[in-house]
Design goal:
This protein is α/β, with parallel strands linked by helices. It is built from 20 helices and ten strands. It has a five-stranded parallel beta sheet with strand order 4-5-6-9-10, with helices on one face. Helix 17 runs parallel beside helix 18 (386-399).
Length: 466
């Protein structure tokens, strides 16, 4: 029996162990999509206790606690930090097979040197150890990033953002990690979501453009994209919960924008026409500025209306969406391709049943600009567990070129989540090691090791022009 989470955790063959320890483990991290705060990076935030850094905004952990019957008072409520940590520690042992169990113990081992297991009985020991270490000067946000060997961080930012914290980080020569904004214009593109009219008024003010129709709306978005580019932006991110494709004339689009600005009633068809046109417009701007485009689709947001009213969005109540919109996604990419507006594009679906579709779709639109111009993105959100990562990697290998994959991201709000890259790298090396030892791929360790390093770091470095 193998011991729990030793140095060869998840590495089941000698080839896998060689690939991980000699090639993958020490590669820098390109965390090209996450939700950490640039303000906290600049200010080098220090955390008072493990609850702050672990439970302060991690909806993965919140969902586990709710599934264990924990009252919301101990999750997002005003319970003392020590009591919240206790409730989580009591729930964690039941998470066998859940990636959070692995992530937590990887973080405890990596950042705090704790080799035991967290449960209700050990909670006090772990609480004291972690808090003692967190009090050290080098355990602020910057220290955690540096200890994790992170070379690049792509945050997620609204077009209205001044990006002042990114500018301050860039001007600070004491910090070597590149922190760049990513353009997330969902609120401008979602006519059907509450608050669109008010948001457009804010966009108009920030961009210095009087938005009164489709032309001026596009002009405002273009100006904000340029603002992001001037602050080092490498990528955009679009949360398209269900992809739809509806063509419209410029006259129709202008009328739709005017109706929305006047507060007149619009329907789903109007919203889909406007979103389609603006996605294609933004894609053209990304091509112009050498940016990559990320599209995350098939999430069902806020199905629990009572908890949404109580807590708002992004609190752990979303789920996998019921409709894929896969044909519409193909039409959307084709429209971009036809008009020479298809940027480097990364596609993610929350529904793992779409793996084969995405793996085959990207092959329909690859280009000579860069190997792997279109990417089937890393297993996302409800799929970033061992099985989900294996399934995504195998599907990508079956249908495309795994050697051109740009690898893992955290998609996290926590500065301890960089161990997810180690988790991914172990799973990757184990899979490739199995193929080699079963005779399915040549045992050329140097060549395969170089490919592993490409997937872990070099491909993303090239893809995002780092």
């Amino acid at each position: 029996m193998k011991p729990f989470m030793n140095n060869d955790f998840l590495l089941n063959t000698q080839t896998a162990r060689t690939l991980y320890h000699e090639y993958a483990a020490h590669m820098p991290i390109v965390d090209y999509h996450c939700h950490v705060s640039p303000k906290e990076i600049f200010e080098d935030r220090h955390f008072a206790n493990i609850t702050e850094v672990w439970l302060g905004g991690d909806h993965y952990k919140w969902r586990l606690m709710r599934s264990n019957g924990v009252d919301e008072y101990y999750i997002t409520g005003d319970a003392p930090a020590r009591e919240k940590f206790q409730k989580f520690a009591e729930a964690l042992p039941k998470a066998i097979g859940n990636p959070v169990y692995h992530w937590c113990h990887l973080e405890l081992k990596t950042y705090f040197g704790y080799a035991g297991v967290l449960n209700g009985d050990t909670a006090e020991e772990v609480w004291n150890l972690c808090n003692e270490i967190l009090a050290r000067e080098d355990m602020g946000v910057r220290g955690l990033i540096e200890k994790s060997n992170v070379s690049f961080i792509g945050t997620t930012d609204d077009p209205l953002d001044s990006l002042e914290w990114h500018a301050k980080i860039a001007a600070d020569s004491r910090f070597s990690t590149v922190v760049a904004p990513s353009f997330r214009p969902d609120k401008a593109l979602n006519l059907d979501k509450p608050g669109w009219k008010d948001y457009i008024a804010q966009l108009s003010s920030v961009a210095g453009v009087e938005i009164n129709g489709i032309d001026s709306l596009e002009d405002a978005l273009a100006k904000r994209i340029m603002h992001f580019v001037q602050h080092g932006c490498r990528a955009s991110d679009h949360a398209v919960d269900r992809v739809a494709y509806r063509e419209a004339t410029r006259e129709e689009l202008d009328a739709i924008v005017k109706k929305g600005l006047a507060g007149e009633e619009t329907d789903i068809a109007d919203a889909e026409k406007l979103r389609t046109a603006l996605l294609i417009f933004c894609a053209g701007e990304y091509v112009k500025h050498g940016m990559a485009m990320q599209i995350h689709c098939n999430a069902l947001r806020n199905p629990n209306s009572i908890m949404f009213e109580k807590l708002g969005p992004d609190c752990g109540f979303d789920c996998i969406g019921p409709g894929s919109g896969i044909e519409a996604l193909a039409k959307l990419l084709n429209a971009m391709y036809e008009s020479n507006k298809l940027p480097r594009t990364i596609l993610y679906s929350l529904d793992s049943n779409d793996n084969a579709f995405l793996g085959s779709l990207i092959g329909s639109f690859q280009g000579k600009e860069i190997p792997g111009k279109l990417q089937h993105g890393s297993a996302w959100w409800f799929n970033d567990h061992k099985q989900g990562m294996n399934d995504q990697l195998i599907s990508l290998a079956n249908l495309s070129l795994l050697g051109n994959f740009i690898g893992m991201l955290t998609d996290s709000r926590s500065f301890l989540s960089y161990t997810r890259h180690a988790y991914f790298r172990r799973i990757l090396c184990n899979l490739i090691g199995e193929w080699i030892e079963s005779g399915e791929y040549p045992d050329d360790i140097q060549a395969v090791g170089a490919m592993v390093q490409d997937i872990c770091y070099n491909n993303a470095k090239r893809y995002f022009n780092l």
